[in-house]
């Protein structure tokens, strides 16, 4: 069954209320890189990378500091052992040297006889960086005994540790991202379910509900709120429809009596004016009753095989208004409810005369009827939101109750037809009915 709607990409009108629906958009339905799932996955990946980098840097600097501390301790102890041996035997041990040429300047002329250490960052092949330990052999002017501790083997181990940390971090990120995608997918599916329910409610399906949701988190709270909103809207809309139906039913009898009474008035300008206003009032009551039946879904079509051009001509004749009717070749008999089809066409013709400007043209071809005028066209808000009851749009479109298009849309839905509203490129409002 076709959707009854004004022309606007991605939007449709609800068949009963005439309000716009949000049609499914392919780009909106696809999983894109901007979806919540991939945003959460990207956030998890960035967080895992930041944690891995932070832990890697912490381990690197802590290990490097520990390596230097241990090298300084080894140099300090080596100087102590070598100095003890040199003083006892006069020989150098543990790689000790007297006044070596590469000794850092800070250790070459110590101001006291205590042991000192210094870091030398020079690298020569596989040697370096190093830590020197030094102490004067005797008093001032005596040679300096120094021991060099090469840190390169320990730093090689540090580089291997860095590589291991990098591989472990990449493995952690590779494991964290799929888990984040899966978890985000669970949340995304629940949110899409709530979004689809909200979209159906906005389209006029007030029976749509999200239903029970797993968990007690924010998503479940949103779903419950949407269901409560639908319940509240449903109650208000049912109250509004019932009120409209009750008012129309209550007015029908007194208006009928009033019409019978004014028919007894003598002919004259005052009597004709009063009879015309009463007939307008009766038409309004009948329109309200028809809308209440359409809202309640109580209308059922009675199909018959009828010539499309004949039904259209009869509908235009019944309006008593001028319209240029053109019938294309090859127009065939259609299976439809002729009474409802006449109602749709007559409402469109009356709307074109009341709110547009002549000439009004009615085109019939195959299973399509097009009614257009040469007035200011449909207002932008009507094309955007669909026709609304008791709202006629722009002031320049004339007066009325705003029920004609609403009834036409509802009757088209009953027929399973599609009614599109737009403005012609060369000006004027255009309504296209496709059976």
TrEMBL record:
Domain HAMP: residue ranges: 185-238
EC numbers for this chain: 2.7.13.3
Keyword Membrane belongs to the record: yes
A Pfam entry, by short name: HisKA
Locations listed in the record: Cell membrane
Biased composition (Basic and acidic residues): 109-123
InterPro entries, A to Z: HAMP_dom, HATPase_C_sf, HATPase_dom, His_kinase_dom, HisK_dim/P_dom, HisK_dim/P_sf, TCS_sensor_his_kinase
Principal subcellular localisation of the protein: membrane
Region (Disordered): 1-26, 108-130
Keyword Cytoplasm: no
Catalytic activity reported: ATP + protein L-histidine = ADP + protein N-phospho-L-histidine
Molecular-function GO terms, alphabetical: kinase activity
Transmembrane segments: 40-63, 163-187
Domain Histidine kinase: 246-435
Keyword annotations from UniProtKB, A to Z: Kinase, Membrane, Phosphoprotein, Transferase, Transmembrane, Transmembrane helix, Two-component regulatory system
Protein's name in the database: histidine kinase
Species, as recorded: Streptomyces violascens
């Amino acid at each position: 069954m076709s959707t009854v709607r004004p022309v606007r990409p991605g939007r449709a009108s609800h068949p009963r209320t005439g309000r716009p629906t949000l049609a499914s958009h392919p780009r909106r339905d696809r999983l894109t890189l901007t979806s919540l799932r991939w945003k959460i996955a990207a956030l998890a990946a960035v967080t895992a990378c930041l944690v891995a980098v932070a832990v890697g840097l912490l381990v690197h600097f802590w290990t490097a500091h520990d390596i230097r501390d241990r090298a300084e301790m080894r140099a300090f102890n080596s100087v102590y052992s070598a100095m003890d041996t040199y003083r006892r035997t006069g020989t150098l041990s543990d790689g000790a040297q007297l006044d070596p040429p590469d000794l850092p300047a800070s250790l070459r002329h110590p101001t006291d006889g205590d042991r000192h250490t210094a870091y030398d960052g020079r690298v020569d092949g596989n040697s370096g960086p190093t830590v020197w330990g030094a102490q004067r052999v005797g008093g001032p002017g005596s040679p300096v005994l120094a021991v060099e501790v090469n840190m390169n083997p320990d730093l090689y181990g540090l580089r291997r540790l860095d590589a291991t940390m990098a591989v472990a971090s990449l493995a952690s990120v590779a494991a964290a991202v799929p888990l984040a995608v899966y978890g985000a997918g669970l949340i995304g599916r629940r949110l899409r379910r709530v979004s689809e329910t909200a979209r159906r409610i906005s389209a006029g399906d007030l029976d749509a509900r999200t239903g029970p949701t797993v968990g007690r988190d924010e998503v479940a709270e949103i779903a419950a709120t949407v269901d409560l909103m639908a319940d509240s809207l449903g109650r208000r809309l049912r109250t509004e429809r019932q009120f409209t139906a009750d008012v129309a039913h209550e007015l029908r009898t007194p208006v009928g009596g009033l019409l019978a009474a004014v028919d007894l008035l003598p002919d004259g300008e005052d009597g004709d004016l009063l009879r015309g206003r009463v007939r307008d009032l009766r038409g309004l009551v009948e329109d309200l009753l028809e809308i209440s039946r359409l809202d309640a879904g109580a209308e059922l079509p009675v199909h018959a095989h009828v010539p499309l051009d004949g039904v259209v001509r009869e509908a235009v004749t019944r309006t008593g208004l001028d319209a240029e009717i053109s019938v294309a070749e090859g127009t065939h008999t259609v299976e439809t409810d002729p009474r409802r089809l006449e109602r749709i066409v007559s409402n469109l013709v009356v709307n074109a005369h009341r709110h547009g400007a002549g000439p009004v043209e009615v085109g019939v071809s195959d299973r399509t009827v097009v009614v257009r005028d040469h007035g200011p066209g449909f207002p932008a808000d009507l094309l955007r939101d669909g026709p609304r009851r008791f709202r006629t749009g722009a002031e320049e479109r004339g007066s009325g109750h705003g029920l004609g298009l609403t009834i036409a849309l509802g009757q088209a839905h009953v027929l399973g037809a599609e009614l599109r509203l737009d403005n012609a490129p060369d000006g004027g409002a255009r309504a296209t009915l496709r059976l």
